Amino acid sequence: MAAFKYESHVREPLVEGKKDYHQVTEDIVRPIESSPSKLWWVGFIISVILLLFGVYSIYREVTYGVGEWNLNKTIGWGWDITNFVWWVGIGHAGTLISAILLLFRQGWRTGVNRAAEAMTIFAVMCAGQFPIWHMGRVWMAFFVLPYPNTRGPLWVNFNSPLLWDVFAISTYFTVSLLFWYSGLIPDLATVRDRAKLKWRKKMYGVLAFGWTGSTKHWQRHESLSLVLAGMSTPLVLSVHTVVSFDFATSVIPGWHTTIFPPYFVAGAIFSGFAMVQTLLLITRKVLKLEEYITLEHIEVMNKVIVLTGSIVGIAYLTELFISWYGQNKFEGWAFMHNRLDLFSPYGWSYYLMMGCNVLSPQIFWFRKMRRNLFVTFFMSILVNIGMWFERFVIIVTSIYRDYLPSSWSTYYTPTIYEIGFYVGTFGLFFTCYFLFSKFFPVIAVAEIKHILKKSGEAYKPANEKVETESTEEFYHQVSHHH
Amino acid sequence: MAIKEFFEIPKKFKTWSLALMGVGILAVVLGFFVYGTGDVHHKTRFWASLLHNSVFFLLVANASMFFICATTLAWGGWQMSFRRVPEAISTAVLPLGIVALVVLLAIAWGGHHMTHIYHWTDEAAVEADPILKGKSGFLNLKFFTVWTIATVVLWYVLGQKMRNLSREIDEKGFDSAAEARKYIWKNTVWAALFIVWFSLTVMSTVPWFWLMSIDAHWYSTMYSWYTFASSWVSGISVMALFVVYLKNKGYLELTNDEHLHDIGKLMFAFSVFWTYLWFSQYMLIWYANIPEETVYFNSRITTDHHSGAYTFLFWFQFVINFLGPLLILMRRGSKRNYTTITIMAFVIIFGHWLDFYQMIFASVSPEHVELGWLDFGVAALFVGIIMYATSTALTKHPLISKNHPFIKESIIHHT
Amino acid sequence: MAEKKFVVGSFKEEAVLFDAVKKVRKAGYKLHDVYTPFPIHGLDQAMGLRDTSIHTAGFIYGIFGTTTALSFITWVFTKDWPLNIGGKPHFALPAWIPIMFEFTVLCACVGMVLTFCYICQLAPFVKKHHFHERATDDTFVMAIECTPKTDENEVSSFLNSTGATEINVQQAETGWWLGTYDKDTKPF
């Protein structure tokens, strides 16, 4: 049976303009085949410069030790781990969009999934830098691997959340990469078959793995995607869950709380979607893909942002409430004096976090705001500032005053190399993203074609006939059709 | 073949629902004489059983409205072919809500002399206990009463608004896409309001008040989300049961294996989700090993250092709530099979009923497990109420919302 | 692998293709394969392909991962080098769940992708015969295998009657060989 292509006329088209299959290929593959614009070069060069600054900062840290950073007596985790958690969080949206939304069959994900998945991979690469270089003696990094060694054998500590992180993040990176690449293969074959230049034919010929589009292969490919999505869904939850365990398994007031796992996951989705918005708003403009990444896409993602922002809000308030309700002095102190007190050394960061993550997204209750590109762009950045501060609040305000007041630290400010390392990961992230947008189709070509006749603007008039039929007529027609 | 629009309650179904309610009332009356008039421990046993069942089944029935609102917010189309079923189930919030209000307020106001359920209602104990005294800004009768009433009333009122919105288009459809879109937006706004209230109650305050405060000293930030997951997956299972039943009786023609498959997926996914929250809460408390937190598991899990009376029950409900759904519902075929879905729905509901049982009883009577005729009898009353309320609601309005803008998408829905 | 002769027809509309597939099968021609730019639901059934069981393979890899992780950590912490970590029992199962889970997913996913690439013969530097260069763009391509008894002209006109737009006869290798797409390479 040929699937009946119909979608309610209430829904807005996901592909605008008069498009047929060939036009879709043209539009999406064109940026790969033409030389990059001036804007692309400017962005790319800036990214590489940032990356080089990051490399220099790391060089300083490796040569002179972790002392190049301003970590002190009680603040053993500062910017470094804040940045780690922040990047990992951002790395959640891609897999969420591809996996969970695939399972929920949200058609709009087809416009944004490819770029979001790529973003995920780059964000996880950035995240991975922080714990690795934080080791100080980075040449010993292989100690985290459980291999039969000459040290006794002394194994790694499987009971430690930090080791769970090693497994969680490397698994997540591997699976995201596989998921992303297996989805790319058919599109790379499209680029290969269109290529006129020799080197391009060769390069994409190698990258496309000899894909032909055979029906049997598509059938297996669909099954593979579904199972990978099914596996990635709990995986993506587990990654930030494990990151939250780094804190929550401890007995540090402000860290040890049972809601951390789902709350971290919600926050990760929240910041990840914001980053997707930031990137896609630029991408659609620069690559002229406004007809594929439409206002409808942006509106839906803004809805996800207000939803997850509010979930995070409920979690913040739950935490705050229970810190009082539990009547535990230490927990209460962490919240009342180190966070809630605006005039305490880091009180401002708690309010910044609340403002950016909980209050400001509420603006997306209004449809006008959800469809306003400027507001969306501004909010997408604000959310990620807020989410950075969330991690900063969790890490720094929980540990800067420990149980021994004599060791309460002086105010913690990062050094230039600590900041440089963070800035460097932006360089890495955007360098990768610029290269991706030049050499790979930023939108899943095959998936767009799959929904084109259902959600494409050009095919909407064909649906109007269905709208005039009564439900019963339609039902009978469909049942005979089978 | 025309679509059967109105449900007629089969005689057998009606008899069953009435019989179950009869058994339930009998159990309550008998329970009252056997336990309810005895000493404070007996009374606790009686009232705790009422608390267990009324809270569990109320949350389960309300989960149907959560389903409707969540799918409305997501602009889902697939559920339209059977949406009247969760709508009907959610009407049970009225009778169940009244019963739950009576039970909750009776227990709270009955105080320490009547039962030993809410320790914080004992004024003398609170005075002597700095921790309870510190909590009294939240754990006090006035706030408990106001909040509990507001919770149930608003659940019902907002739910009723959603149901009315759904029914008002039965007579006349839409002339234009713009009109239909307006209708969908209106639905979205009300659904969002319900979800907001839902998160301020089920996902935060209500489980603290009704259940967590039984262990008045203990606390866990996860508790409410955990309670939500438990009642939500049971709510989906109740929906599955009614859908399968109506299909077997020849109704819901537009609903097919594809829809059932998706309900099955939800049962599977949220069983795993429940386990995830279960594990996160348990593991974090186990790992940090702080006595004021681990005390919760003393009566629930046997270790080298002590034995807990509820150990078997605790692991048993874990097995049937996790391993069962995981292994059985993983296969595609079993999610499309009426019998498997029915059996698994019963298993899940029973499993989470047991979960609620241990959440309450392992705290009010930590020494012995007394699960018996009273608990099952009272449960029968609530099952009967849900059956009766749902079936009555189903007869009153067409089973299919034929003018809904998304109904045709639901007809061609495929996995 | 072997060289074979095919009659190749291309289509522009899915609906036409579906009917053509049905007619070709009914007429008893040997349908070699259909190449499409995107997955078409139901085409596999229409062609009479059996369901894939690649997900079963994934399940087995997953179970392998769980048992490997559990037994390995158990051996390390109870037999090979028991350590007291935070006063926890040596067999600290709750603490091992995260790694067991991650390893399960890792094994299942990596195993499945490798299996997929193996059974579909996909790898870098693999080259195959392509019947139509727009089969990955907007054209649905059907290849009918010729047996010694087949009359090519008859098949061609039959395809024409089903609505194929372009029809030709091609001699093609059915397997894969090593090569790149920038120059023509001989199979094997």
Write the layout of secondary structure elements.
The complex is a heterotrimer of chains A (482), B (415) and C (188).
Chain A: H1 21-33, H2 38-64, H3 79-90, H4 93-103, H5 109-134, H6 161-194, H7 198-207, H8 215-248, H9 260-286, H10 295-325, H11 329-340, H12 347-359, H13 367-370, H14 373-399, H15 416-439, H16 445-455, H17 460-468, H18 471-481
Helix pairs in contact in A: 1-16, 2-15, 3-5, 3-9, 3-14, 4-5, 4-8, 5-6, 5-9, 5-15, 6-7, 6-8, 8-9, 9-10, 9-14, 10-12, 11-12, 12-14
Chain B: H1 11-36, H2 40-73, H3 84-90, H4 93-114, H5 123-128, H6 130-135, H7 141-167, H8 177-210, H9 223-248, H10 257-288, H11 291-298, H12 311-329, H13 332-335, H14 338-364, H15 373-396, H16 407-411
Helix pairs in contact in B: 1-2, 1-15, 2-3, 2-4, 2-8, 2-9, 2-14, 2-15, 3-15, 4-7, 7-8, 8-9, 9-10, 9-14, 10-12, 10-14, 12-14
Chain C: E1 3-11, H1 14-27, E2 30-35, H2 43-46, H3 54-80, H4 93-119, E3 126-128, E4 140-145, H5 152-162, E5 166-173, E6 176-178
Antiparallel strand pairs in C: 1-4, 1-5, 2-4, 3-6
Structure description:
Chain A contains 18 helices and no strands. Chain A is mainly alpha-helical and 482 residues long. In chain A, helix 3 crosses helix 14, helix 4 crosses helix 8 and helix 8 crosses helix 9. The longest helix of chain A is centred in the middle third of the chain and has 34 residues. Chain B has one domain. Chain B has 16 helices and no strands. The radius of gyration of chain C is 25 Å and the shape is elongated. Chains A and C meet through helix 1, helix 6, helix 7, helix 8 and helix 16 of A and helix 1, strand 2, helix 2, helix 3 and helix 4 of C.
